[in-house]
Amino acid sequence: MSKKHKNQKATSAGEQQSAEEAQAGQDRAEAVQHEQETVEKEVLQAEPAVMPEPKDEALEMRLLRLQADFDNYKKRTLREKAEWSERANEDILKELLPVLDHFELGLKTAEQHKTDPSVLTGFTMVYDQFVQTLKKFKLEPIEAEGTTFDPHLHEAITHMPSESHAPDEVMAMTRRGYKLGDKLLRAAQVVVSSGSAENIEEKPGHPDEEGAA
Description:
The chain has helices at residues 3-45, 57-112, 117-135; strands spanning 139-142, 154-160, 170-175, 177-180, 183-186, 188-193. The protein is an alpha+beta fold. Among the domains are: 61-137, no CATH class; 139-196, Nucleotide Exchange Factor Grpe, Chain A, domain 2. The longest helix has 56 residues, at 57-112.
């Protein structure tokens, strides 16, 4: 047998084997596809499962309690978040109050020393902007002068007789007080009138009658 004839025979055998392998792969692919289509048909034909409604009274009560607990948890979380925010604002504002005090003192001193009006106007505008910014965080000044002394809002540093102020009336304020919303942030330091000097009388002492003749 010639060499050429042998090569042709080997080539035919290789081609036949490749064709058989290709046919086997195609058969497997068709089988997989057929199986997949069968499964899909069965899924489509199957009736959707219906969840039975809970009929156990104990289970229903448990679900209601869980719902109530979850609602309470949400409310508590929102309340705690608001409290944390307010507490953080309180700490920051307390640190800013001395700055505000010094700003007011500086403006008052500048007015007394007749500072250049343009400079004074510029600093006054900055001060007003600072105050308005603090008000956005619910910081409110406490009015004191001319009001009746209130121990919940005022801190009396001294009492003085006065002919023009009624007893317990605030004569002057030495340091402004502030509130954060409805909460006292810092009491106002004030001078309180003790009334007219003529009306301040010592209570008469009782005579000691013990041993009297």
